[in-house]
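Reading a protein record of the kind used here takes only a little practice. The record below shows the convention in full.

——
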Amino acid sequence: MASTSDKLQFGTDIKALIEKSKRCKSGSKGKQRAINTIKQRMNEVAKEILKNKDLIVVEKLSNLNNKSKLKGRLSKNIRSSIGSWNYAYWLMRLEQLCEDNRISFRTVSPYNTSITCPVCNLADSRNRVGEVFKCQACGYTDNADINAALNIVQRFLTGKYGSCYKPKETQLST
């Protein structure tokens, strides 16, 4: 569900919950219970992630299902999973918890975050094969989602898209 720049992954067990939800008949009580279980797990993961953090940066993804049916981009099974997972709810809940705990919540453009090498900055679609990232230029290897998390934080902190944020340790107080 979430990968962090300190190389941790959270909510890896959500796939089983989504599969259970997909097996239930649409509109049934079982389906609603499965969806509530997924939302509960999302809330638990969001609380886990926020421990000892002062900044949360996420990709600003939009239109995940938009045009996914065209030209066979995504199968019906994957579109169903994205819908069950409810990315919008996840971000809304994460943002709410950040606000409640006075944690800075920011978004950056998702452009090439999962195919860019954090070591040599090469952006090549051949760098990512499934869940594995391997740079074609320097040979750096990591989990693709963790690699994307590193790029997202780096993009925000360097101000590539207009950021002027400085972590608490480097902020000056008057």
User: Anything to note?
Assistant: The first strand starts at residue 2 and ends at 3. The beta strands are 2-3, 9-10, 55-59, 104-108, 128-129, 132-134, 141-143. The chain has two domains: 1-108, 110-174.
